[in-house]
Each structure stands twice: as C-alpha cells, then as structure tokens.
Design brief:
It contains 2 helices and 9 strands. By secondary structure, the protein is α+β, with helices and mostly antiparallel strands. Strands 1, 2, 3, 4, 5, 6, 7, 8 and 9 form a 9-stranded mixed β-sheet that branches. The N and C termini lie far apart (39 Å).
Length: 168
C-alpha cells in the first residue's frame, strides 16, 4: 500500500473587470510558481471556515476587494487526485458577480494582471488550468458542475463530470 498523501481544501476566485478581463496572479511561490492563475487559498480548517467565507477572506487579503457571500457564485467543485503527486485537493471555484475596478498592488504571492479570455491561451498557465480549469469556467460559470480529476504524474489528465446543475 502506498503512503497516504494529504488532502487539502481550497478555493479559487475568478474576478473580472468591467471589460470582462480576468484578474490573474503571476505566482511567486509554489504551487504554480511562475504561472498565471486566479486568486485563492486554503480553507482555515481550525476555525471551521466555509468555502464561501474563505473566498471572501482570500479576495480581501489578496486584492483588497470587499465581497459578501451574495457577491459570489459557486460554479464548480473539483476533487483533484494526486496533484503534482504531492496532495489531493478539493477545490471550490467561485465567480465574483461584483467587478474589480482596479489592479491590486504586487504582493509576496506575486503580481497581478488583467487578461482577456483569448489572451490566456498565450500565457504560461498550470497545465491542469489550461486543459481543465478554463474550459470548465467557459462552459459552467453560470451554472454548477461537480468534477473529479486524476492528476497523478505520468498519466494523462482525466476529468470526469459527476453532476451538472441544471442537468444538460
């Protein structure tokens, strides 16, 4: 039996400006060092933080934007098995209904930029974001989808839909 790897709970928050450009962070730390990704972070398990509370907190901490739970739409939940071979992740993906009106300042986590959805194809992105995350955003951002992904190193990424609401 292989040794157990940790399971982590996290959120990603998709923020857009009035022009519909995505706010992304060029990550200065692992995971995802040197690539662009949405903001987010891990749930504070010791306090019993909910995914919505975490999304509000992470948005405030990373961008200064004050959101309420009502400003968020949970559009996806994805269970990633063996991401980078180091941990399992249960990720909650939120789309902010409130646009961000400014470019946040650089911080220790990285630097921000606004990018059109089309421009993302030319940016360095995590492989799973390019092949799974952004297509999920494109297709389900106004609905809800639950997925699981096998991200184990050395095998092709396999993403399976477990449920879509409303049903297709």
């Amino acid at each position: 039996m292989s040794p157990a790897i940790p399971y982590k709970l996290a959120v990603l928050v998709f923020l857009e400006n009035a022009a519909g450009e995505q706010l992304l962070l060029l990550r200065a730390k692992p995971p995802n060092l040197g690539v662009w990704s949405p903001i987010g972070g891990k749930l504070e398990l010791a306090t019993g933080e909910s995914p919505f509370e975490c999304a509000v907190r992470e948005t405030r901490e990373e961008t200064g934007l004050e959101l309420t739970i009502a400003d968020l739409h949970l559009f996806a939940m994805i269970a990633e098995k063996a991401y980078e071979g180091e941990s399992h992740w249960l990720m909650f993906l939120f789309r902010a209904r409130k646009p961000i009106t400014y470019l946040p300042p650089d911080m220790s986590e990285g630097r921000f930029g606004f990018h059109s959805r089309a421009a993302l194809d030319q940016l360095p992105l995590p492989a799973t974001d390019r092949t799974a995350l952004w297509p999920i955003f494109d297709r389900y951002r106004d609905r809800f989808v639950a997925l699981r992904a096998d991200c184990a190193p050395g095998v092709p990424l396999k993403v399976e839909i477990e449920q879509i609401t409303p049903a297709e």
